Amino acid sequence: MNLPQDFAPYAAHPETSRGRRYTEISPIYRSEYQRDRDRIVHSAAFRRLEYKTQVFVNHEGDMFRTRLTHSIEVAQIGRSIARVLRLNEDLTEAISLAHDLGHTPFGHAGQDALNQCMRNHDGFEHNLQSLRVVDELEERYAEFPGLNLTFETREGILKHCSLRKAAELGDIGQRFINKQHAGLEAQLANLADEIAYNNHDIDDGLRAGLIDMSQLQSVSLFREQYDVVKSAYPDLAERRVVHEVVRRMINRQVVDLVETSQARLAEVQPVDINAVRSASTTLCGFSVAMQAQNLELKQFLRKNLYQHYRVRRMTSKAARVINGLFDAFINDPCLLPPESLRNVQLLEQSKGDMGRARAVADYIAGMTDRYAIKEYDRLFNPFQLT
Ligand code: MG
User: For 62, 180, 223, 360, which has the most beta carbons within 10 A of its beta carbon?
Assistant: First the structure.
């Protein structure tokens, strides 16, 4: 079906999509990328994002971002920019909503712990796992495993990848070998992710009392907007000051991204998505000045928030939970619930020890924070016998 659309020539056009792994009849009233987005929203992995952590463990408070609200914020920022640049909004939204589907419980601490557990079994990487979720692990359709998404959505999900892995992945990994880029919607979703988490981590960090506004004066992006807000509203309550500053920071980054990308696109004039893929640099991006400010902000967050002793205590506990679960299941898969045990047996049959470990990692990666904590308690708390 032809829908009224006004895409730029360099946008992803559904009619020139590289298609799906398993051929399907096109939807009647939706575009191919709308269908991708809808499949993602209805997936089990998407629902579980509600109870997975970004920085703060889910049960620490109901006010903090989770991976679900984070993904929705990424989609909002991505879609707004996609519309201005006349890119494909539906594809941008699909990639944004799917980009964290492969994340373990407990944020990056969980991913690092699981990667360590898998060190002799090909490792664990959340990007690859997101692709694995949509390609293999979701069980919803009669005709194929996974969600059978389009090439362009899958390309956007696979943000980075080692050359060795790229060779194993076939067509979706080819761009890393050829040193090419993903389409603009994928480039955009990646940067929208960065804008979303840098800014909401400031907001959540302030709310949790782990950082304060005087420390943030050393971050130029914050200080500039703080000065504007303070001079316009000298008596504004602190909570509102924070929100005014953060929303203005987001706006600054969005405007910079739009204008820098517009200038690069005007200069290179890519004729289609393939010209975008083979351009000498990515065409969606921040100005040099904004890149420097972003780096300053990231370094601040790394030092003062992600390394804060209260966050470190949480992440070290999270690693203990992941390690405990992995060791228990790898040594005795019969401790697994029947469905997961079956997955372990199937993968073990085809891939031996590697397969066993991968299936255990799949099970753990799919857990929410609270489910992982409950499983740990059920396995190791001798006073809980059920
Ligand atoms: Mg993210």
Answer: 360
- Between CA 338 and CA 372 the distance in angstroms is 17
Check: CB of residue 193 under 8 Å from CB of residue 201: no
Cα(317) to ligand 1 centroid in Å equals 22
Give the domains, in start order, of the chain with CATH numbers.
Answer: 14-310 (1.10.3210.10), 316-380 (no CATH)
What is the Å distance from ligand 1's center to 204 Cα? 15
CA of 220 to the centre of ligand 1 (A): 23
Name residue 53's beta-bridge partners: 66
Q: What is the pLDDT along the chain (386 residues), one digit of tens a residue?
A: 444 568 999 999 998 999 999 999 999 999 999 999 999 999 999 999 999 887 765 556 667 888 999 999 999 999 999 999 999 999 999 999 999 999 999 988 899 999 999 999 999 999 999 999 999 999 999 999 999 999 999 999 999 999 999 999 999 999 999 999 999 999 999 999 999 999 999 999 998 899 999 999 999 999 999 999 999 999 999 999 999 999 999 999 999 999 999 999 999 999 999 999 999 999 999 999 999 999 999 999 999 998 899 888 888 989 999 999 999 999 999 999 999 999 999 999 999 999 999 999 999 999 999 999 999 999 998 887 66
Distance from the alpha carbon of residue 375 to the mean position of ligand 1, in angstroms:
26
What is the 71 CA–ligand 1 centroid distance (Å)? 6
Cα distances from 118 to residues 52, 230, 331, 360, in angstroms, run 21, 50, 13, 10
pTM for the whole structure: 0.95
